[in-house]
């Protein structure tokens, strides 16, 4: 029996097993995921770390389809952080080739599902072939109006905040704006997620593999996000796990600092 079936089994009440439908869930508009545990998944199988990343890429495809089918508007995936450059050279090189393989094999399905590819982070520092694959995927899906699949590539949240501060400081220095005009809204307008408008802040942040920290992922945008941590390693994150995250989110009481009406 699947995990999901077990969770909703009515066996104790002598009734047939019931599989809940997505309509029973509150669907987060924006889900952001820290896809952690690829290395441990590979190690558990006596495989090289990169085998975990390859399998992790397959999970990216699965979760993209699940999120799109569920009606999620934005799915942001932490694919490569500004800190990941300090991993062994071979691993970095493999991670840099993954977007090429991913888009080579997956763009037709993205188009069929009306999904639009976008990125946050400094893609100018990526190897030319990787950068081109990302740019091609963005232009091939630019007309799509469904879910936004937003890859955080060479992304670092502290750098994003510092960069936004510099832009605002420059504007003040040039007399384009006054200090009093720096507000959470104008600040958010200088972040890389500003193109998402009122969808910029994730409703739900998922981190796999048992680690419970943000690791420089969307620190400004996460101010009111709900967090879901699971011990499951990213390559093992499947439909049951996705549904479990949605079920947990559905039960959360989001008050945004206010008291319940
Ligand atoms: C963290 O696991 C994972 C990463 C740093 C890379 C994530 C990349 C993918 C899931 C594939 C991305 C696919 C595309 C299409 C870009 P880890 O290596 O830190 O695992 P560990 O903590 O077990 O060592």
Automatic annotation (TrEMBL):
Where is it found, in Gene Ontology cellular component terms? cytosol
Q: How is the cofactor bound?
A: Binds 2 magnesium ions per subunit.
Identify the domain of life.
Answer: Bacteria
Cofactor(s) the protein needs: Mg(2+)
Q: Which Pfam families match?
A: Prenyltransf
The GO biological-process annotations, alphabetized, read as: polyprenol biosynthetic process
Checking InterPro entries in the record gives: UPP_synth-like, UPP_synth-like_CS, UPP_synth-like_sf
Q: Which positions does UniProt annotate for Mg(2+) binding? A: 36, 226
Group of enzyme by EC: transferase
CDD domains per UniProt: Cis_IPPS
Q: Which residues form the active site?
A: 36, 84 (proton acceptor)
Keywords linked to the UniProt accession:
Magnesium, Metal-binding, Transferase
Q: Write out the GO MF terms.
A: ditrans,polycis-undecaprenyl-diphosphate synthase [(2E,6E)-farnesyl-diphosphate specific] activity; magnesium ion binding; manganese ion binding
- What's the Enzyme Commission number for this chain? 2.5.1.-
- Positions annotated to bind substrate: 37-41, 49, 53, 81-83, 85, 87, 207, 213-215
Q: What does this protein do?
A: Catalyzes the condensation of isopentenyl diphosphate (IPP) with allylic pyrophosphates generating different type of terpenoids.
PANTHER family listed in its UniProt record: DEHYDRODOLICHYL DIPHOSPHATE SYNTHASE 2 (PTHR10291:SF0), DEHYDRODOLICHYL DIPHOSPHATE SYNTHASE FAMILY MEMBER (PTHR10291)
* HAMAP family to which the protein is assigned, alphabetical: ISPT (MF_01139)
NCBIfam families to which the protein is assigned, alphabetical: PRK14830.1, uppS
Q: Which family does it belong to?
A: Belongs to the UPP synthase family.
Record's subunit section: Homodimer.
* Protein name as it appears in the record: Isoprenyl transferase
Please give the organism: Fructobacillus ficulneus
